[in-house]
């Protein structure tokens, strides 16, 4: 049962409903209470007991919760049903349409003082903003959602916290993103809060930042944990649709508690569907492994599959990393023109403030392609741009490699002192992956 409104608000509501129904204070009061008590209650000078509210709700023909809070149980359930519909819209990749649904629902949740539903709408708006590349707006929505859930247990706050971390990551703030995700993982595992959905969401989200920071061992371990935690739900979209249909039927029959249970299951499955989309990263990881092993044809097939999945479901920020990996494989397979076109597409979709690490990776590979084609000035320009972006983002592992490339280019063109400066810069950033780049690894789940 939610918190009640203040006595004055309840009193005005009782008076309005009594007048609408054509009842006198005596008719409303009898046989248990007096007209004087009703008069005192309607003026807001007394806080009615549960027994008094139940008597009044029976006489007025409304639900107890509606009299105490001003909102009916049906209203709350129907709002949750519409939130699930918006979640479905987002899960199938229609971010702009979902944002319109969430914005309308946020207004209604705020009007009725429904904190949990406000948080759900804000979380949805944040996800929509990240998908469309509006990272600052997305981060603000996630922060507001966290504020609505300030008193809730950590697992309930994880989706909003993870959203904020992803917004920082896509803006190039790798260390802070990893800090947020690892801190939450550590708190969950050390505190015994082994919520599978929360852990899966965090492990799936930390893979990208780990890879960009050169922490390949941690990325591989996070992927292993994510796959171990992934629920075996068959076709989550199909099951979720079933639960939504059941919920509609139950609402129509007035069986609101059962409808809420079905909606909770549908919402959980749609979250899983979004995670499965993110786990297109598994194809990317497999392609990356094949590329490292020299199996370029298999790598190209896996990376094209990952890119197709991400492009169909996610915004350019999510697909750009895979596009760069695919371009590298294409270049190594002597398809440099196609690789360059793919990379320029990445740069058209990103900016230094939005996807700095991925922009840097595109410039780095364009530099290598230009150098192979003996276009030295173009190569140097791309390397310098990449270096500036990586320094801003703090991607130490990539910086060391880039400084080596730039130093080699400068040395070959006779600029020895400049080459030495580039090498020294690279040595300053050289770290063993997953050690000095990051702090201690977070506690592990009991798998």
TrEMBL record:
Pfam families: HTH_3, TPR_16, TPR_8. SMART domains: HTH_XRE, TPR. It comes from the Bacteria. Residues 431-441 have a biased composition (Low complexity). Keywords: DNA-binding. Residues 14-67 form the HTH cro/C1-type domain. InterPro entries: Cro/C1-type_HTH, Lambda_DNA-bd_dom_sf, TPR-like_helical_dom_sf, TPR_rpt, TransReg_Diox_bact_type. Residues 427-447 are annotated as: Disordered. Gene3D superfamilies: lambda repressor-like DNA-binding domains (1.10.260.40), Tetratricopeptide repeat domain (1.25.40.10). PANTHER family: HTH-TYPE TRANSCRIPTIONAL REGULATOR (PTHR46797), METHYLPHOSPHONATE SYNTHASE (PTHR46797:SF1). This is Helix-turn-helix domain-containing protein.
């Amino acid at each position: 049962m939610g918190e009640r409104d203040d006595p004055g608000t309840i009193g005005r509501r009782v008076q309005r409903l009594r007048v609408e129904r054509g009842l006198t204070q005596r008719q409303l009061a009898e046989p248990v209470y007096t007209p004087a008590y009703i008069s005192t209650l309607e003026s807001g000078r007394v806080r009615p007991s549960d027994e008094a509210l139940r008597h009044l709700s029976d006489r007025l023909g409304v639900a107890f919760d509606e009299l105490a809070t001003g909102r009916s149980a049906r209203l709350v359930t129907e709002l949750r049903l519409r939130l699930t519909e918006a979640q479905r819209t987002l899960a199938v990749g229609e971010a702009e349409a979902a944002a319109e649904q969430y914005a309308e629902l946020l207004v209604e949740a705020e009007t009725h003082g429904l904190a949990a539903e406000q948080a759900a709408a804000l979380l949805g708006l944040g996800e929509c903003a990240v998908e469309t590349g509006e990272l600052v707006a997305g981060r603000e929505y996630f922060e507001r959602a966290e504020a609505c859930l300030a008193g809730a247990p950590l697992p309930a706050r994880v989706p909003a916290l993870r959203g904020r971390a992803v917004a920082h990551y896509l803006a190039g703030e790798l260390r802070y993103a990893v800090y947020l995700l690892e801190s939450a993982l550590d708190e969950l595992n050390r505190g015994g809060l082994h919520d599978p959905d929360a852990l899966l969401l965090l492990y799936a989200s930390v893979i990208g930042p780990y890879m960009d920071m050169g922490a390949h061992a941690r990325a591989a371990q996070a992927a292993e944990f994510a796959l171990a935690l992934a629920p075996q739900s068959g076709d989550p979209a199909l099951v979720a649709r079933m639960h939504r249909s059941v919920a509609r039927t139950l609402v129509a029959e007035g069986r609101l508690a059962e409808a809420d249970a079905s909606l909770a299951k549908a919402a959980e499955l749609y979250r899983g569907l979004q995670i499965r989309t993110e786990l297109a990263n598994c194809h990317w990881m497999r392609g990356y492994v094949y590329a490292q092993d020299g199996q370029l044809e298999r790598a190209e097939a896996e990376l094209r599959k990952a890119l197709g999945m991400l492009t169909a479901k996610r915004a350019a920020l999510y697909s750009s990393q895979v596009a760069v990996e695919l371009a590298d494989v294409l270049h190594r397979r002597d398809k440099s023109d196609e690789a360059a076109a793919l990379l320029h597409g990445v740069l058209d979709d990103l900016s230094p403030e939005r996807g700095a690490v991925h922009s840097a990776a595109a410039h780095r590979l364009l530099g290598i392609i230009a150098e192979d084609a003996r276009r030295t000035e173009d190569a140097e320009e791309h390397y310098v741009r990449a270096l500036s972006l990586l320094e801003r983002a703090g991607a130490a592992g990539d910086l060391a490699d880039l400084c080596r490339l730039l130093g080699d280019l400068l040395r070959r063109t006779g600029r020895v002192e400049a080459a030495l400066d580039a090498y020294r810069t690279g040595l300053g950033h050289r770290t063993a992956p997953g050690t000095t780049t990051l702090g201690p690894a977070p506690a592990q789940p009991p798998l």
